Structures are given as C-alpha cells and as structure tokens.
Amino acid sequence: MDIYSEITKITDRTMRVEHVFKREGGIVAKGYEVKAWTKKEGHGIKSESIPEKIKQRIK
Fold first, then answer.
1. What is the pLDDT of residue 30?
2. Mapped to the 3 state alphabet, what secondary structure does 1-51 carry?
3. What's the angle, vertex CA 28, arms to CA 25 and CA 21, rounded to 5?
4. Sign of CA pseudo-dihedral 32, 36, 40, 43
5. Is the distance from CB of 47 to CB of 36 less than 8 angstroms?
6. pLDDT tens, position by position, 1-59
7. What's the pLDDT at 58?
C-alpha cells in the first residue's frame, strides 16, 4: 500500500491535508483532514493564526 498526502489549502488558521491510498496502482481510498493551528489557553485550546514563517515553508 502506498499513501500520498498533500497540503492543498492554507487559510489564516487552518490547513487541509488530502490523502490518497493506492494498492497495486489503483486507488483504494481517498480522504482529507482539516488541521487547526492552536495554542493551549487555560484548560482548553484556542485557534490562532498560522505564523507566516510556517506558511512560507509549507507553500
């Protein structure tokens, strides 16, 4: 099984990562996840802007 992942979209606070799973040259599954950039605040978490330095390295 081969798994291919790619960041396809970056917003101010999130990034979308798409995945393709292949076996013997054929696609067996596709999916995506949306990850939020967060920081710990008190007993919870809060989203915040992805630092420009990180955005530039991803692009």
1. 98
2. CEEEEEEEEECCCEEEEEEEEEECCEEEEEEEEEEECEEEECCEEEECCCC
3. 75
4. negative
5. yes
6. 999 999 999 999 999 999 999 999 899 999 999 999 999 999 999 999 999 999 999 87
7. 84
Q: How many whole angstroms separate alpha carbon 42 and alpha carbon 8? A: 32
C-beta separation of 21 from 27 below 8 A: yes
Closest to 4 in 3D by CA, of 31, 38, 37: 31
> What are the tokens at 26?
């054929």
